[in-house]
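User: Predict structure, ligand adenosine-5'-diphosphate.
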Amino acid sequence: MTRKTIAPGAVLVINAGSSSLKYQLVDPLTEKVYADGLAERIGEATGSAIKHEAFGRKRTVEVSLPDHQAAIGTVAEMLREDGIFLVDAELAAVGHRVVHGGRSFHAPTVIDDEVRAEIERIAPLAPLHNPPNLVGIEAVSALLPDVPAVAIFDTAFFHNLPDESATYALDAETAAKYAIRRYGFHGTSHQYVSRRAAEFLGRPVEEINQIVLHLGNGASVSAVQRGQPIDTSMGMTPLEGLVMGTRTGDIDPGIAFQLARVGGMSVDEIDHLYNKQSGLKGLCGDNDFRTILERVDAGDPAAVAAYRVYLHRLRHYIGAYLIELGAVDALVFTAGVGENAAAVRADALADLQMYGITIDPVRNAIRSGEARRISTDDSSVAVLVVPTNEELAIARQSVAVVAGP
Ligand code: ADP
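Assistant: Predicted complex:
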């Protein structure tokens, strides 16, 4: 295989989950994606595989992946087959998505031993996410010890939420002792999308108010006032807020007592139930929105009921954030469902003309990978679809922090 030219300054973006590793090699200046992919079922006895794409060529290899280090090693080997030699590619940085920054991190941070230790210290706030993020950091550092590694925190954009939206009405001493507050998540996406939406509208982000709806498998809404978030639906963990693919979203805290006392469930069982067996999947058996919409169109009662619950919660937050922001210039849909499911956008904003929100059905039906306006010209709130690009945002922030002020 002939060696391919990679412009110096590319960034390897890493998003490590407990049994997965998502990666992208991207030039943050030109936005060119050289390669990306997903290693799945890491550490499982069977079914491990890497779905990989480089220079437009896609392939999947089924390969044993005992740990994250094996996964990144195999990715490096696959890249070599594509003519990309990671070790001497003159990468500017490796950008790691880290889910929880706690109160310690509110900006992109170059990872050293102290930062590693601090990410570990706050891991109890995100036991499902931070430990695998750290494993990813270790694995890639072993492969690329000389490339600066940067942590980009999912909570960072929300670090300055006003106290009244960050505070739970819990005994104040207990809350302080256990660092319990609203942190918010999907921050990289909410920040990127709110800035792109302002660019699209040709207005400074500091001059407009937006409601950003990140609707993917995980889902969250934020109220962004003149570029700064003043509220968001996810809380101390990514469990709060909207109905999600497999997560409950908002739920009466008392339900946990019932499940424990009457159902005899352990904390871990309740955690699993709330995070993995609830949401759309728990309501109708499916969490892929394409399947759910097909079932809704076919009149399937469980899917229709689940869809109604999903929309009800979504509209609840839209209403709340309209009031919190007072005046709203733009309502912005993003992520898998927000970018692709025209029916969800139309149903979420049905009959809101009296709030200055009117969708144009023809514009809404157009499929595109570009930022676009789907509201009518006389809708006083601009309704936009803005594709998110967390990898590009992570790459840009990584380069900026490595370059220094
Ligand atoms: P995450 O990053 O949280 O895993 P994504 O942003 O990739 O999630 O979104 C995944 C969701 O988007 C899935 O529920 C998927 O069904 C949905 N989705 C993707 N494409 C479409 C489509 N064309 N129509 C409806 N839903 C879609």
